[in-house]
Write a structure and sequence with these properties.
This protein has two domains: 72 residues, no CATH class; 142 residues, no CATH class. Helix content is 63%, strand content 7%. The chain has nine helices and five strands. The protein has a three-stranded mixed sheet with strand order 4-1-5. A two-stranded antiparallel ribbon has the order 2-3. A hairpin with a 2-residue loop joins strand 2 and strand 3. The protein is elongated, with a radius of gyration of 31 Å. The chain starts with a helix and ends with a helix.
Length: 250
């Protein structure tokens, strides 16, 4: 395919552009150029990260002759097997005049990944904030629950309930909340990722595979751990409850 494009036998399109223009592999693509309408053959519809406008790939000779563009904004050099890429980069830098830039494939990949890493950093920061807020909310909920049930807890303590059992009772309630919340979050999260994998090809022009990993189970266990962490202060408060004061409440 690469050799056919470089030889000028046709062009390649991103999938979104092919869908927008309603062309398929083997169709003739009408292109209006300064030298009249050209009809290159569509050789392939490729997954390529492009948004809104799409991308057409053609040979450099075709671009120069059809669009009167003797220069190119970007040139890619493919090194032969065994070539020292560092030496090749240095030689190209010496040959290219400023203010042009020369960078290798690894730097280009890093530059393309940078916006994605920034987006992931923001997403991670958001879920960390959500976890913190959920922990505080659970702490407040269980604290209010203990305060509202002071008399019931006092009766249990007066009938021989130990402090340890009181702590376990509050922790069990928190664990139940964590298990239900973790299971619901796991189900909704996996469903969301599965649906996202179905639409990613249309949204970003490349498919994102759906492969559940151990991270999902780790986060589910983490939900239970966060619930237990948020229940620790209320559990200690319930264990230290004064029996006489609790029984005196109406």
């Amino acid at each position: 395919m690469r050799e056919e494009v470089l030889a000028g036998r046709g062009v390649v399109l991103t999938r979104d552009l092919g869908a927008a223009l309603r062309v398929r592999v083997g169709d003739q693509l009408p292109l209006d150029t300064p030298h009249g309408r050209q009809r290159p053959t569509v050789l392939a519809l490729v997954p390529y990260f492009s948004t809104v406008i799409g991308t057409v790939g053609m040979s450099l000779d075709q671009m120069r002759s059809w669009f009167d563009r003797p220069a190119a904004t970007t040139l890619q050099i493919t090194a032969a097997p065994g070539v020292d890429r560092h030496r090749l980069s240095d030689n190209v830098r010496r040959a290219v005049p400023p203010p042009d830039y020369v960078y290798d494939g690894r730097a280009a990949l890093t530059g393309a990944e940078a916006p994605l890493h920034q987006s992931m950093f923001i997403a991670d920061a958001v879920w960390i904030i959500v976890v913190f807020v959920a922990t505080v909310a659970l702490l407040n909920t269980l604290t209010l629950s203990v305060l509202e049930r002071r008399r019931e807890i006092g009766v249990l303590r007066a009938t021989g309930c130990s402090r340890r059992f009181t702590v376990q009772m509050v922790l069990a309630e928190a664990a139940g909340i964590g298990v239900v919340g973790g299971a619901a979050g796991l189900a909704l999260g996996l469903t969301d990722q599965w649906l996202y994998s179905l639409v990613s090809a249309d949204a970003m022009n490349f498919a994102v595979g759906f492969r559940p990993g151990p991270t999902a189970l780790v986060l589910t266990v983490g939900a239970v751990a966060v619930s237990l962490l948020g229940s620790a202060p209320p559990a200690v408060r319930a264990a230290r409850l004064n029996i006489i004061e609790a029984l005196g409440l109406e």
